[in-house]
Amino acid sequence: MITFGDYVRPKSIEEAYEIFKLKKNATLIGGGCYIRMGNRRIGLAIDLCDAGLNYINEDEDIIEIGAMTTLRQLETSEILYENFGPIIADSVKHIIGVQLRNIATIGATVFSKYGFSDPITALLALDADVVFHNSGRISLEEYLKEEGKRRDILEKIILHKKFDKGAFQSMRNSQVDYAILNAAVSKKDGKYRIAVGARPRTATLAYKAMDYINDTEINEETAMRAGEIASEELVFGSNTRGSAEYRKELCKVLVKRAIMEVEA
Amino acid sequence: MIIKTNINGVNKTFDIEPHEYLLNVLRKNGYLSVKRGCDTGACGVCTVLVDGEPTLSCSFLAARADGKNILTIEGLQEQAKEVGSYLIAEGVDQCGYCSPGLILTVIAMKTQLKNPTEESIRHYLSGNLCRCTGYVGQLRAIKKYMGVE
């Protein structure tokens, strides 16, 4: 179980950051559902639930998703569906159940860079940026490459509009289990972007596969070839859900399916 | 710390530890319809409605219940009885341990799914596990309750 020495609920991200930077023993609380699975004492818990970070806003060019937006809100957002198709909803709908998705937040998922994450893969395919309160804006791809986590507060995720479509695919041992492997593909201005996650490492882009598919006609054969190239260029590992070899095979077909779904 | 919350239409004040989760607080204060299942956020047995949204009470910090409206099955007896009658008609009430969580989720689902289908019902209820029924009979009952052919 977890215990808190002290607990605060700041009313703004500015207030939250002021406390966070002064207290070395402080831990940020996003959804609060994953942290409880561990066994630790937290000196000061800073609960972000009142910090005004729960929103999905759009303007002409971008969509901003506040870090405390729940996975269920992403799943049911008309703004996200209208702009990107089912890619984001499909990337969260297998996560446990509605009751957990009403608590778990996208900010905590992204900030923690969970290897098993489904939505990180979708956001990476959509070329998302992340915005930290103190250290500013950075692409999600760069953030995922950084060692460890930042001593900062993730404020929001920014998505650029004008994508043609996106698709998310995954394979699981059972319906609400973590994915053995997942893949997401987006298309913008005729160019494809391919991300593969739960390798079981954190999601990454398949650049060679993207170069190939962006320079060829799209059909079942070329989509499969893109999957094969992705499976060659990416690194896979083994865990209780599947072996590296199995993940490599899955990569081929999940990438192919995602490309064909975008193309359909 | 002190939280003020409304449970089943009654204003309540509780003195809680800040790291306590809602399930503990509810059960400690006599809301025993809220069951403890896996206690890891996976089974749906501990579901309550927080401002109308189905929520795992085992994974929801009690401190966040401050100012919220909580509904347990005790507060929705008429609707629960109606859903229960459909389950009984199909003979799928079985041990009943998961029923409070399932029934609360079904009640919320009815308000949220505009044009329910078998697929959308299955998806909405994928977080409610039941070790007795095998789900087929439950689905039959719930489809009838939701008016799905």
Topology-level CATH name of the largest domain in chain A: Uridine Diphospho-n-acetylenolpyruvylglucosamine Reductase, domain 3
Task: State the secondary-structure class of chain B.
Answer: alpha+beta
Number of strands of chain A: 12
Spatial strand arrangement across the major sheet of chain B: 2-1-5-3-4
With strands numbered from the N-terminus, the spatial order across the biggest sheet of chain A is 4-5-8-6-7
Roughly what is the average pLDDT of chain A, rounded to an integer?
A: 96
Q: Percent helix among the residues of chain B?
A: 25-40%
What are the main properties of this structure?
heterodimer; A: 264 residues; alpha+beta; Uridine Diphospho-n-acetylenolpyruvylglucosamine Reductase, domain 2; Uridine Diphospho-n-acetylenolpyruvylglucosamine Reductase, domain 3; Enolase-like, domain 1; 3 domains; five-stranded antiparallel sheet; four-stranded antiparallel sheet; 12 strands; globular; B: 149 residues; Ubiquitin-like (UB roll); DNA polymerase, domain 1; five-stranded mixed sheet; elongated
